[in-house]
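quick one: zinc ion bound model?
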Amino acid sequence: MGRSFEGTKNCQLPDGDKIEVLLYSRKTDLLLGQLTLLNTIIINKSLFERYSKTVQNYVLFHEYGHKKIHPLFSILLVLLLIPALLSLLAIVPTVLLLAHSILTSNLQQISALTFLLAGELIAIGLFMSACWLNELLAEFYAFKKLGLENVKQAWAEIKQKHLKQNFLSELFGKILIRLTHPPHWLTLKTYASVSKTKKA
Ligand SMILES: [Zn+2]
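yep, here:
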């Protein structure tokens, strides 16, 4: 996917933990880091070339957070991924067929397609929920290690500096990110209510 790997790098986190990451370069850096299914942290080289130490630490802590919760979630995500992908592919034809059946008032087809559509939405919803939960936990880890204000600063810097590609790939990338990552406001809200519960 337009990615070329360029060796490894040893990183030290502010709390003393050491991690080894695999570096890659890619034209866009909408995604600065990722944990692969093989439990390897891969980092866009751009992180070390264009971003402040705060962003570097944020991304490393976030990915390291993923690694700490990895085994269970990766199995769950893989199990949910295939039905979700199939459903995503099938959703447009299902909606079109459903619209057609409604126009021709074919009741049997309408009920069958409604059932199918509901199943597709559930499959996508389950996959998204598992992804979002996984991301929330990684973000909470970064909050805990780096402090909320520093993470907010990192978010703002990434938003401002990230290398944009053409309109379509930017849009596609953002949709893909939203399917797999919750918006920041939701992350903050969830974190606030979790912290409140913990204190109470
Ligand atoms: Zn993540």
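Residues 52-71+128-199 form one domain.
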